[in-house]
Amino acid sequence: MKNAYPTFANWPIRKIRQHLQQIENLSDEEFAMLQEDRRAGVRELLARHLARREKILLEGERLRKLGSKEKQLYKKGFRMIAGVDEAGRGSLAGPVVAAAVILGQVEDPFVWQDIDDSKKLSPEKREKLYKVIFGHSVAVGLGIVDVEMIDKINIHKASLLAMKQAIEQLRPSPHFLLVDGFRIPGIGPQLEAIKGGDRLCLSIAAASIVAKVTRDHLMDRYDQLYPGYGFARNKGYSTPEHRKAIQSLGQTELHRKTFRLS
Question: From the CB of residue 165, how many other CB atoms can be counted at a distance below 10 Å?
Answer without folding.
Answer: 17
